[in-house]
UniProtKB/TrEMBL annotation:
It comes from Cyprinus carpio (Common carp). Belongs to the Rab3-GAP regulatory subunit family. Pfam families: RAB3GAP2_C, RAB3GAP2_N. One of its GO terms (molecular function) is GTPase activator activity. GO terms for cellular component: cytoplasm. It is found in: Cytoplasm. This is RAB3 GTPase activating protein subunit 2 (non-catalytic). The lineage of its organism: Eukaryota, Metazoa, Chordata, Craniata, Vertebrata.
Amino acid sequence: MNSYRSSRLFNVNRFILADYIIYSTFFSLSLENELTWDDSDWGSWENPDEEEQQQSAPWLQDCVLSLSPCSDLLVIAREHKAAFLSAKWRTGESGQEEMTLAVTWSGTLSAEEGECISSVICIPLASQKRSSTGRPDWTCIVVGFSSGYVRFYTESGVLLLAQLLHEDPVLRLKCRTYEIPRHPGVTEQHEELSILYPAALVTIDGFSLFQSLRACRNQVARAAAAGSDVIQPPPLAYKKWGLQDMDTIADHSSIGITTLSVFDQMKNASILGGFHASVKGSPPAMSQYITVGGGPYTGFFYAIEGSSQPLLSHVALAVASKLTSALFSAHSGWLGWKSKNEEESVQKQKPKVEPATALPVRFGLPDSRRHGESICLSPCNTMAGVTDDFGRVTLLDVARGIAIRMWKGYRDAQLGWVQVSEARGERDLATSPSMPRRHAQFLVIYAPRRGILEVWGTQHGPRVGAFTVGKHCRLLYAGHRLMGVNSVTSQGWQIHTQQVCLFDPVNGALRAVTIPFHLALSDKKSERAKDMHLLRRLTTLLRSRESEAQSVLLDIKHPAIKKQALESLLSNKTAPVSCLTSVTRALLASLKEQDPEAVDESLLQFCSSQLKLLQLYTDVQLLHTPDTSPTEPEQVCNTDIILIEEDLARVGPVLQRYTEMNTRPCVSFAQDSSEPLPVRTFLSQLEWVNGELRVIKQPDTDWTQLGSFLFWGCLSGQSPLQRVCETLQESGISPQQLLSLLLSVWLNKEKDILKCPDAVSHLHTLLSTLSSMKGAVDESWDGQCVSPWWQQVRTACVQSESSAAALLAALVAHRVAKNAITRLFQEWECVSLELEQWMVCIKQLEDVLALQTLLCLPSPQGPTGGSVTRCSVKTLLESGRGGVADCVSKLLFRQGVSPDLLRDILQRRGENEPTQHICVCVVLELLECVCQRFPNSLSPDVLFAHCSWENVVQWNKDPELILAQIISEGIPCDNSVSFIYALLSGVSAMMWQTFIVKRFSAAAFLMEKVSSIKFRSDVGMGDAAVRSFLGSCVQLLQTLMEADSAVEEVSAPDVCVEEVWGGAEGPVSIVELALDQRSVHYPLVQHHCVLASLLHATMTFCLRLKPLSLFDSKGKNAFFRDLSSIQLLPSGDTDPSLVAVRQEVSHSATLSTGARTAVMMEVQDKDVLGSQLLVLTGQRLAFSLLHSQSQTKPNMELLARLPPTRCTWLKAMDPSELRCPSVPLSQSSRLINKVIEMLPENHAQYSLALHLLEAVDSFHEEP
């Protein structure tokens, strides 16, 4: 790997002289892992092959380097060439993904003759998107040239703008970005870019620069796409200062805006103006600049805000031809459409250079022999490190302008700063929650002559780290972060920036320096700092050398840190339990050897409790380990097992069917396989409280894993039951919590339980043993009250959705409880409240098992049909009295069972006739079993009501489904006829008001508005679905009229449920809602039925008419109202114009007899046609019998022969709409015969047609 990087990086030198591509890799180093307390143990970064590669290293010292603060872009430049390297991921030789810096652009940057690159800086620009979390949008590369030009480029080498601000070489480029103030009184600093010349300093406002760079980048993109010649970047706002009273300047730092205190203001006024100097009321705001060089060695400059107005730059134009060359060529110069002479003339036209505003030095550190080389400002702007030609590193106090520390022996040193924030866990937030987080400053010094990298604590801190590195490295410190960030946009951001990196050209490694905060607390002899270091070293040792972990833990002095170290050790993933036990035992022994008064009591108790838990874990693990030695057979009560088997035989078929449906093969993953419980999970779920071992109860805690560790070996027959129970009893865990763990694993591992034939007998033994423990069953329990112990079992069973496992647990617990009661009373048979509770619970669980077996039927549509509904006794009790019927109705719809098929299944209930479909046979078998257990909740009429409601609910979700028979009048059952018709009327009215009337009115208004009808947008259905929908509306309204005519004016009957489910509470069921509905207004329903028939006929025969126009204003206003309300309906006196319109429509729709017969043969929906013809017959008979001029005796006799309900039906008919009302009874008889042929026998109006035919025929047979 080292040779690969070296060979690639060796091409950098060849690239700078010729055009070659370079690569570099990124690695990270943390001082936490490398720091030790003896200088002889400091880590080394040297490469064994470094001596062989020394010849290729010195070339880097002649290059200009800049690393982005985000470490995602590196620029290497020399003379007039540069290479941009961006971060990318690649697969290394070891097969792991690693970060690399690979070249993304290389070429020539100089545009003026003879100019060279003198300074480079990378400025990442923040994204303006709200979804950004602190990552840069893009990075701008700012390059300074010896000609004085400053040019701005993108990562791909595209020139954005160029600026000539001064006609001297650019010495240094530096940037100041936004920093979040750590204290309320700290002045918020503005962003800026500072450009240092030999005798001038230019500062560009950060906001202006940010907006200009964004605008230029957008214009460049548009110009490149449109082929435009020139872009027009906006001018920059900058200030230019002429630095005076210094002989030479090498480097600078812009501190920002500062405000002097009143004392400092008076002091400066006295020094500058003498005794008679005047002082202003408030200190002025000033921009502070520090320069290093010669005469003086360090100079301090202060520019009063407002003393110089910002200048507007004359930005050099970047033509599209130059954009093209930057993208496609790095050798042939700028290519474009202009001629060479024109290009030269453009380059010679330099922009106007503004004069500088004089800025004298305020004061400095005079040293005639010393010459400053570089200055590096700390992140908090309070200190600065300065290097000089004497090999010293001086630490300056920026505010006071004095040197506070100096290091010797660092010739050609390179500096950087690391700022570390205090972690939240290292301070007691309870005592000082409002205190801000502390920050520590560390100065990083790289001495290339010595090949060493040191880290020093400031201001007077010791050296906290030293590393031996190469002698040709470069220390890269940006000193800024993202540009374009402010106090608003930085909220919630996590700005990821590396502070100090070391670039080694020998092996191409780029390493980041990371320092822990605790090193700033005191010197290296501090016990706390040493303990914190040992704590981190312990974490490292747990991954590699576990044997040394014990000695490291014992070396820690502070009890709190020692407890933290032990907690870290116990929570380790890979540490074996033997290692944890030995380390904890050794720590406990060392604590007991100390003076009792000096030992921390909480640490001693913690060690003792954790050691007991580790011993319990080891004992249980050994008991579950397969052992070949013979074990004593478990003592099982054969009588109880026989009785349990008899109970299982009662539900055997259902239990077998349930097992078959729930033990099908399914996809499983490797991590889901049963593995031993990790020791850290075991320790995290148990705690010692007042000498008692308790299981920690949390809302999201799953006890299944812990219960499996303790009891699954016993339930599966792989572990000795008695020995496991004795071990658990001796551990101190209460019997109640052991019972909860046992029930948790039993109820949550149902599939495994059903596969184990002996699991029931093992559960019986475990329950018997746990019940006999001290504290399990209250000694004062007399059997005539409910036992909390057994109530805990019943509660777990009724709440579980594992129906089979819950029933098996209840059966076993019932037998164990009955034995205890029998022993208590010493009688052959006794009556106990506890046993009554068990009988009700078992009956409920058996019912739920049968219901859950039915609900487990797979959907014919496969996975798209929806997931299986899971239920429990608790959910059924909380779902109200209609919960069972609601579950079954949803299943029947998912199975695609139509109302006719459902009626057939219910009629064949109890019969052994073979069915054609296997699916129907399975549904019949399971549905019959459920109906036998829920005879009241699943009575045929109740089930039909719920199925009809579910049918309409699903149709409302997808109206394209053909809405078949919405509701049926039910089949004969034990309920009264009044109950059936009341239920039928209520459900029909609810369907109409909730789902039907909205789309029905939309269809009517749409047909009234336009002749060419497209229902998709307004009604949400296609033409075929609308046609079926209107036919269903006719059927629903006719059913509603018939049910209303038959219902008796009595109070609504009660809804009955089974005795064991009488305590169900929850939402009101559909049946209860239907029975509470108000009676409908029959004429209003008939009025809507006429409209529905008209709409259906219009859609069926494709008639071109406006249906609502055939009704007067009263009729229109009555439509779509609540069917139980009283509305004004049309009377017998009809407007002649309306009659004419009706006759015209009737005449246009009249066909000959042959044509009518042909049409009748073509109609597919015979039921709807028969219903409409029956209404027509009723209107004709109503006219002949009730509305003719002469009421004859035969007419009266014919009315007398009809039942009262049929007479009411005839009186509701309106013959005024008939074009030919006078029709002989013989024709009406033939029409009724046709109707009977069309209608099926189970149709709601079939009996009505028979009564009419019988009355008409008997009238003709009489002389």
